[in-house]
Amino acid sequence: MLVQLEIFNKKFDHITSVLEDIQQRDDNIYRTIFEAEPLPSTIRQAGIGGVDRYSDLEALSNSELVIETAKRLDKIAKQVYVQSKSFDEVISMAKRKEEMISSIPAIQPVSNKDLRRVASPFGVRMHPFYKVLKMHTGMDFTAPTGTEIYATGNGVVADVIHSARGYGNTIIIDHGFSYKTLYAHLSKTLVRPGQKIKRGDVIGLVGNTGMSMAPHLHYEVRKNDEPINPINFYFNDLTPEEYDKIIELAAQSGQSLD
Ligand SMILES: [Zn+2]
């Protein structure tokens, strides 16, 4: 009996060190990747309640060692349970991350293989109508009327506006995670509010509606409803060289088409 208990305890030593390694990986890798706090050790080391939980074992020979062994076994079982719960959480965070990656705008809104379609970047620019310096809250892509416009991330159509003024015919997509995109001056809209959209779906056609100098797409990325520079959101379909080129092209163009 004594020898067997000692063997058990040796095995527990091994299991405990394996478990510690798993816990460390959970905290250091998985929880870091998904930007979650490490599990507090008070939760990991959660004790087993009840003082006379092991009283039945007191009558046995070598009772002290038996009780000690039983306690270790309970503790390990509890820690394995906590660890398994933690992995459940990590899995659900991973699923959410996947959803986030496919939702955030990450491609260009028009086919731009030759990279000649950037007319005007985000930032302060000479306004084409007012001829004064004015903030340009999006990026302009020159393209013939009728060119297909792609949704840049998964989401839901938040608004479809038909107008002859300002942004002209406009589509706004809500991507969740506090991101929205806006597509303006369209000749035609091909979606309706509430419609679910996948990245790359054709949502409308380039036009010259509203306050626009020439056929082009005015494209905005908004985070928490504030326009931000769309140039940082093409990471899915540009190589680093293409990215440099697009920045250079955008910088060369003097005037926005609005
Ligand atoms: Zn514009």
Main sheet makeup: 8 strands, antiparallel
Strand tally is 13
Report the C-alpha radius of gyration, rounded: 30 Å
The H/E string reads: HHHEEEEEEEEEEEEEH
Notes on the structure:
- With 258 residues, this protein is α+β, with helices and mostly antiparallel strands.
- It folds into 2 domains: 102 residues; 135 residues, Glucose Permease (Domain IIA) (Distorted Sandwich), CATH 2.70.70.10.
- Strands 1, 4, 6, 7, 8, 10, 12 and 13 form an 8-stranded antiparallel sheet that branches.
- Strand 2 and strand 3 form a beta hairpin.
- The longest helix has 41 residues.
- The termini are far apart.
- The protein binds zinc ion.
- The site of zinc ion has 7 residues, from loops.
Detail the topology: elements first, then pairings:
Elements (H helix, E strand, L loop, with lengths): L1 H32 L7 H4 L18 H41 L14 E3 L2 E4 L6 E4 L2 E4 L5 E3 L4 E7 L7 E8 L2 E8 L1 E2 L6 E2 L4 E4 L10 E8 L2 E3 L11 H13 L6
Antiparallel strand pairs: 1-4, 2-3, 4-12, 5-11, 6-7, 6-10, 7-8, 8-12, 9-11, 12-13
This protein binds zinc ion.
